[in-house]
């Protein structure tokens, strides 16, 4: 059974940090890319970052470059999104996705 489960969201003050995790099952994890998206209230879902688990190539949306770091741990079938220097505009539900499958999302709220 394919599953993606996000965790690590929460409430943090501006300038703070959070680390999101995406635990997966049902995939040959190291063969694929894992992506993080976010959706703020009233806005469209936005791609945040992506990593190729095989090659390690990464990409980021401009608004998070230099603040967020994506990584993955093939042995644990888990992806991570380290978020530093958080801003109120980072407030959103964050989702991980892999091969067209999505997690349920985790709320990140950044207070000013």
Question: What are the SSEs and their pairings?
Answer:
Elements: E1 3-7, E2 10-13, E3 18-25, E4 33-39, E5 46-52, E6 58-60, E7 68-73, E8 78-83, E9 92-98, E10 101-102, E11 106-111
Parallel strand pairs: 2-11
Antiparallel strand pairs: 1-3, 3-8, 4-5, 4-9, 5-6, 7-8, 9-10, 9-11
Detailed description of the structure:
- The chain is mainly beta.
- Helices cover 0% and strands 54% of the residues.
- The chain contains no helices and 11 strands.
- The strands form 2 sheets. Strands 2, 4, 5, 6, 9, 10 and 11 form a 7-stranded mixed beta sheet that branches. The chain has a 4-stranded antiparallel beta sheet with strand order 1-3-8-7, with no helix packed on it.
- A hairpin with a 5-residue loop joins strand 5 and strand 6.
- The radius of gyration is 13 Å and the shape is globular.
- The N and C termini lie far apart (40 Å).
- The model has no long low-confidence stretch (mean pLDDT 96).
**Separate helix tally:** 0
Percent strand = over 45%
Runs with pLDDT <50, length 5+? none
Radius of gyration: 13 Å
* Mean residue pLDDT: 96
Helix fraction bin: under 10%
| Number of beta strands | 11
- Structural category: mainly beta
- SSE order, one letter for each helix or strand: EEEEEEEEEEE
Distance between the amino and carboxyl termini: 40 Å
The largest sheet, given as strand count, sense and whether it forms a barrel, is: 7 strands, mixed
- Categorize the overall geometry: globular
């Amino acid at each position: 059974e394919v599953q993606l489960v996000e965790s690590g969201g929460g409430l943090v003050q501006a300038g703070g940090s959070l680390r999101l995790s995406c635990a997966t099952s049902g995939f040959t994890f190291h063969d694929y890319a894992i992506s993080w998206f976010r959706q703020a209230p009233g806005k469209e879902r936005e791609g945040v970052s992506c990593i190729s688990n095989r090659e390690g190539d990464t990409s980021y949306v401009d608004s998070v470059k230099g603040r967020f770091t994506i990584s993955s741990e093939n042995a644990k079938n888990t992806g991570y999104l380290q978020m530093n220097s958080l801003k109120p505009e980072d407030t959103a539900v964050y989702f991980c996705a892999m091969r067209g499958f999505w997690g349920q999302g985790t709320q990140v709220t950044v207070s000013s």
